[in-house]
TrEMBL record:
Sorted UniProt keywords: ATP-binding, Cytoplasm, Cytoskeleton, Microtubule, Motor protein, Nucleotide-binding
SUPFAM superfamilies given in the database record: P-loop containing nucleoside triphosphate hydrolases
Taxonomic superkingdom: Eukaryota
Cellular component terms (Gene Ontology): microtubule
Record-annotated Kinesin motor domain positions: 1-219
Organism: Diabrotica virgifera virgifera
Name used for this protein in its record: Protein claret segregational-like
Single GO MF annotation: microtubule motor activity
Pfam hit, one: Kinesin
Predominant subcellular localization, coarse grouping: cytoplasm
Transmembrane segments: none
Family as reported in the entry's similarity comment: Belongs to the TRAFAC class myosin-kinesin ATPase superfamily. Kinesin family. KIN-14 subfamily.
Amino acid sequence: MIPRTINLIFDTIKDLKSCKWQYDVTASFLEIYNENVRDLLDSDSNQNLEIMYNEGRGIQVPNLKDEEIFSFADFKKYMKKAQKNRAVAATDVNQHSSRSHAVTKITIKGRNEETNATWTGSVNLVDLAGSESAKVNQGARLTETKNINKSLSALQTVMMSLHNQDKHVPYRNSKLTYLLQSSLGGNSKTLMIVNISPFQETCLESINSLRFASKVKEVKTKIKRNK
């Protein structure tokens, strides 16, 4: 999904050159591991970046590396580095289980050479860690599983709140929902893809995931162009 998105972006940029549009594209990669925000382009595993709200710019992560990319090849180079630094471990369920939520953010800034019109947009590509039963993990894996399930539960609470059109939406209950606040209920389009296991042992988790997906698809947001 992510490589296809990047290829589509650069194909569209190429097509729009004939209309005198020029674009700058940047990419950042982070993970939320045990409720710590880490820059996946920085090999320092002890970091814990802050998530802050900036009036006019929305949710920001200060000191997160934002690399300029000019092609899919550039993006692929940074993506490989990010994947190498992401927290992955073997569990009783999965030999290569992602132990964190990963967020790839692509920011696109455009300017028309004839009219001097400017345009800025961004897309968050999120790979959520899978929900697992705490009964099948021990030690460090158990701590990771608890934090993963806690943040996924917070995401479900936010989506249910949006579904019910509550006045207060608890985005700040987890780093994940706070970071994705503008993507979930803001002036944006959101697509969620839910993957489930074909195995009988994970039947309960699969059913819960499908129930969650059925509620999420009913959430409606009003989209308008920013001025």
